[in-house]
Amino acid sequence: xxGLLLIAMAHGQNPTxxxxxxxxxxxxxxxxxxxxxxxxxxxxxxPTGTNADAEGRFSLTVAAGNYILVV
Length: 71
Description:
Blueprint: E1 2-7, E2 16-22, E3 35-40, E4 48-51, E5 57-63, E6 65-70
Antiparallel strand pairs: 1-6, 2-5, 3-4, 3-6
């Protein structure tokens, strides 16, 4: 699963955004432990990532910008 995201700028000195979601397979079952990464398409910074919890949920907070979502 790959997607392109635009995370809008928030107001403030250090604009950040939080992406929350669930990872599910084609049978709509949650995927606990799935690796979720956001890769910036504007910079060469390391991807920001996490693993889905027991119900397949995840949350990532990143600087505002353009990202590719990789699961």
